[in-house]
């Protein structure tokens, strides 16, 4: 059975995994899930697909797996991928894991919280964003972006770990692109992040732009929520 990827390109980990599969030339069947319509929250979805009711997840034969980083590690063992994405060398792999673990409580948590505070909660409640909560979320996000720039972009080379791109770059880039949909572009405030994002985009295109099409459309739309900033 062909590998099936269930995803929504509004989702940061979905975009990272979507790009990884395409760039690694791993054959897969696209199975889009509409998060905004709550397709992942139905009883049928939980029973037949993901017990966690999240995306991305994969289905291969009788095997189901959720969580993008767990999926990356599985795919790196199952398929002949280029070593730079997730190196077999223990120390190089551990450095990729270092960022993948760090980001959960840093750029992922805080960029997501800012996005949720400005967009998701107002969408669900029908109420305007609460300015005090937005500013608090922004403060934590900016701190995480500053930490990312200092901790991971201070070395040599165009990518997080030198001259070769890794899955760590994909994951981090997708998280940092997310706030653009609500009017915050880190490129305007962090020069090292700006250069690094352009390096990742150039290395991954046209797949990068394909994965971020929805982000770009919303970020470039003058009628979206950024007009309320």
From TrEMBL:
GO terms for biological process: glutathione metabolic process. Its main location: cytoplasm. Residues 89-217 form the GST C-terminal domain. GO terms for cellular component: cytoplasm. GO terms for molecular function: glutathione transferase activity. Pfam families: GST_C (PF00043), GST_N (PF02798). It catalyses: RX + glutathione = an S-substituted glutathione + a halide anion + H(+). Residues 1-83 form the GST N-terminal domain. It is found in: Cytoplasm. This is Putative glutathione S-transferase theta class member 3. The lineage of its organism: Eukaryota, Metazoa, Ecdysozoa, Arthropoda, Hexapoda.
């Amino acid at each position: 059975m062909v590998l099936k990827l269930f995803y929504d390109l509004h989702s940061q980990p979905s975009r990272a995994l979507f790009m990884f599969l395409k760039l690694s030339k791993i054959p897969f069947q696209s199975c889009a899930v509409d998060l905004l319509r709550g397709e992942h929250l139905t009883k049928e979805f939980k029973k037949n697909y993901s017990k966690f009711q999240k995306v991305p997840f994969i289905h291969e034969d009788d095997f189901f797996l959720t969580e993008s980083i767990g999926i990356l590690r599985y795919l790196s063992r199952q398929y002949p991928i280029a070593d730079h994405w997730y190196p077999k060398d223990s120390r190089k792999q551990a450095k990729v894991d270092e960022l993948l673990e760090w980001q959960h409580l840093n750029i992922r948590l805080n960029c997501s919280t800012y996005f949720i505070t400005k967009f998701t909660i107002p969408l669900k409640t029908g109420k305007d964003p609460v300015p005090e909560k937005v500013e608090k979320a922004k403060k934590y996000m900016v701190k995480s972006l500053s930490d990312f720039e200092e901790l991971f972009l201070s070395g040599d080379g165009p990518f997080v770990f030198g001259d070769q791109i890794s899955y760590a770059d994909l994951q981090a880039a997708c998280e940092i692109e997310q706030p653009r949909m609500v009017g915050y572009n880190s490129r305007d405030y962090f020069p090292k992040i700006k250069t690094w994002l352009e390096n990742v985009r150039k290395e991954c295109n046209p797949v990068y732009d394909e994965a971020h099409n929805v982000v770009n459309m919303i970020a470039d739309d003058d009628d979206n929520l950024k007009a309320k900033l």
